[in-house]
Every structure is written in C-alpha cells, then in structure tokens.
Amino acid sequence: MDPVTLAKAAVLGIIQGLTEFLPISSTAHLLISEKLLGFDDPGGVFTVMIQLGSILAVMWLYRAKILEVILGLPTKPEARRFALMLIAAFIPALGAGLVAAPFVKQVLYESFEVIAIAFIAGGIVMLIIERFRPAPSVMEADQTPIGRAFGIGIFQTLALIPGVSRSGATIVGGLVLGLDRKAAAEFSFFLAMPTMMAAFVHDFLEVKDQLTSERAAEIGVGFVMAFIAAWLVVKPFLAFVSRSGFAPFAIYRIVAGIALLAAVMTGHI
Predict the structure, then answer these.
(1) What is the DSSP string of 96-147?
(2) What pLDDT band is residue 208 in, cutting at 50, 70 and 90?
(3) What is each CA distance from 125 to 136, 159, 254, 266, in whole angstroms?
(4) How many whole angstroms separate alpha carbon 256 and alpha carbon 249?
(5) Which of 81, 89, 183, 197 is a good FRET partner for 217, with 20 to 30 A between their CA atoms?
(6) Interhelix angle for 181-207 vs 77-106, to 10°?
C-alpha cells in the first residue's frame, strides 16, 4: 500500500473523529479534506467505514450507561424511560432519512456552495441561540422529557444538509428546548449512537460489494484514527462548553464558511 495514501487515510480518520461530535459538521470537513488531499474514495466506502470508529468511541466512553440501561430495561422504569427518550428523538431522523437521503447524497453532497452557506447560517443561528436561549430547566441529558426529546429529533433532521452538523443541530435544538449547555451536548452524544449506527448500517449495505482487500489497509488506518480522535475529544468538549459555551464553534463555522465560499467563487476548490 502506498504510504502517501495511508498518511492521507490517517489524516482523514483524525478529521472524522475530531469533528463528528463537535458542532462543525464532520461530513463537510471530510468532503472538503478529501478534495484538498486528492483522496479517491469510490462509492464512499472509506468514509462509511471510518465513521464506525467514531460511533464505537462514544459507545465505549458511555459503556457503563449503555450497560446500565440494557440490564435495567426489564425492571427499572428509569432505564425504560431513557430508551423511550432516545427512540422518540430518533424517529424523525429515521423518517427524514428514508425520504430525503437519496436526494441529499446525489445533489447536495456535490455542492460546496451549499456546505459554505450551511456553515455560515449554522454559525449565525448558534450565536443567536447562545444569546437569547431560554433559561435552562433540564440540567441532565437523561432527564430530558419525551416531548422535548422528540423536538430535538426534529432539529436533527436538518443535519441531512451537508454543513449543518448533526451534533450542531441537536445541540441547538436542546438549547432552544431548555436544556443546559452540557446536557444539550451530552444528549447529542446519546442520540448519536442509534442515529449514526442506523446510518452506518444503511450505508454499509449500499457499499459492501465495493469493499476490497486492496483497500483494507487504508480503511483500517482511518478507522483506528477516527476511534482515537473521537475518544480523545468528547470529554474535553463537554468540559469546554460547560465553561465557554458554543460561541467559539459558531465563529469558526462563519469564518470557515466565508473562506470556503471565497475558494469556490475564485475556482480554488
């Protein structure tokens, strides 16, 4: 395997892991990075497979919670309530994905203008919500009322648009619906587990026939780097937003969106 290709795979894996759970859109960062690095990903196989690394990282970090809920389902009302909360939040994304995913992947993923505009718009919305959000009434993610969980799930459907960010949409939804900053971020991690796993299974079934032994090395490198990067970033991110909020990420989105739009308009990308 070409060492240059492996190095690119490692870089892309790190980018995937670092950005998946931050409100800055991992999909957009991967699409842009693959373009800039000249990384060829026929059928999107590499992108699909390394996302599993990020999913497993957050599941590992919350393994105690997952095990507590699974073992408690038969006997503990709080475990059943937690599961129902996630199901309610997951349903809107499931419906929207089944209806809109083909259009999004075939049309919107090809447009860096859409990504740039989504970056900028998302950053502006995040700044507005940070300034005018209601006083938080939910301080723990697992205490989110079922109705509010469903509302956050509706916000998550916006993440079908590349550049919006799944975590960004769910966090904004959480803030609008009265969750504390840390609770909103942690809810986005909990919701990521069923949402990303379902997306992975769907995408894997589409690309499984294109998996070849020749690509095993680059996929393996990207997968491992995505796992490590996501594992390293989740807990510090929670601590950071508890102290400083989401404004730094909003400003980053706006600056990155303007830069990307300029690059598109001048033909540099």
Answers:
(1) HHHHHHHHHHHTGGG-HHHHHHHHHHHHHHHHHHHHHPPPP-B-SGGG--HH
(2) confident
(3) 18, 14, 10, 27
(4) 10
(5) 197
(6) 60
pLDDT at residue number 259: 96
What one-letter code names the amino acid at 235?
A: K
Query: Which tokens go with 62?
Result: 């919350």
In the block, tokens 């079908």 appear at 160
Could you write out the DSSP letters of every residue in 62-95? THHHHHHHHHHTTT-HHHHHHHHHHHHHHHHHHH
Handedness of CA 76, 58, 190, 248 (dihedral sign): positive
- Please give the structure tokens belonging to residue 176: 């609008």
Determine whether 259 is exposed, middle or buried from the number of CB atoms within 10 Å of its CB (0-12, 13-18, 19+).
Answer: middle
- Centre a 10 Å sphere on the Cβ of residue 18 and count the other Cβ atoms it contains: 21
Is there a contact between 192 and 186 (Cβ–Cβ < 8 Å)?
no
Amino acid at 179: L
What global pTM score does this model have? 0.92
Q: What is the pLDDT of residue 139?
A: 95
